[in-house]
Amino acid sequence: MTLLIPVLAFVFVSLLVMAAAMAFSSGGAMTIEQRLGEVTGTTPKLGESSYEKAVVDGLKRLGNLVPKSPSEMGKLRMKLVTAGYRGTEALIIFFGIRVAFAVAAFALCATPIIFSRPNFIMALGACGIGYLLPTMALKRMAARRQHRMRRGLPDTLDLLVVSVEAGLGLDQAIMRVSEELAFAHPDLSSEMRLINLELRAGKARAEALRNFADRTGVDDISSLVTMLVQTDKFGTSVAQSLRVHSDVMRTKRRQRAEEAAAKTGVKMVFPLVFCIFPAIWVVTIGPAAIKFVQVLFPMAN
Q: Which of 33, 182, 244, 278 has the fewest Cβ atoms within 10 Å of its own Cβ atom?
């Protein structure tokens, strides 16, 4: 076992060096772009953009080498869309990031860079953790984006109510609101722009709205989409429905704030018990304990 660890460490470090060399090597497409730039007089700069492109190309090559499960690809693609990464190559890049993290974690723990005596079992554990870290980070990013969209939904509903009551149709109101929300709530604005693009491409309004709910994965947006689809189906007043739904959303937001405030006392128990109470005990009981020891030890002798 002691001889096996250096051999495996050397193999994985070699693979890491090869992967880095493949990532930073200029491909054929980059060479063609540079030649076309020289001919047309628009040579691209070899600065940060070229570096980022080389890294992305290397991650794509690593991602293409990874075996993929259809069920896992569907879940990861949906999670990437929820996090805001809608590119066609986002999934391949994500697979490459996972492999790069796993190999880097194994190489760091299997070589004497961090530990003086590398452990093969510890290196395998680090490899597994490095493989899972990108997935955990992706879930965290998706949850934060959903939280930002959930916070911006009441303002969006208010703007929709104002736009519809001013005489705009629902499609024009969505387009107008997406432009107005570009600064305050960019995530929600980009999703609403996609609704406009799908409507211009010829999709039905109900299908475009359902795609909006599926992309975001927010319950409040799903209920809003259901309300809009039913309003469009039964021919009721869109402005009145939006106004009632806006009041419901604001009530829900106030109830969430009250719930979070009610949970504060329970969450403060652990910092109090493990951080504050020990210091209080040392300050209050410490002098008495010292005096107790000074009095009893002479009597025992």
A: 278
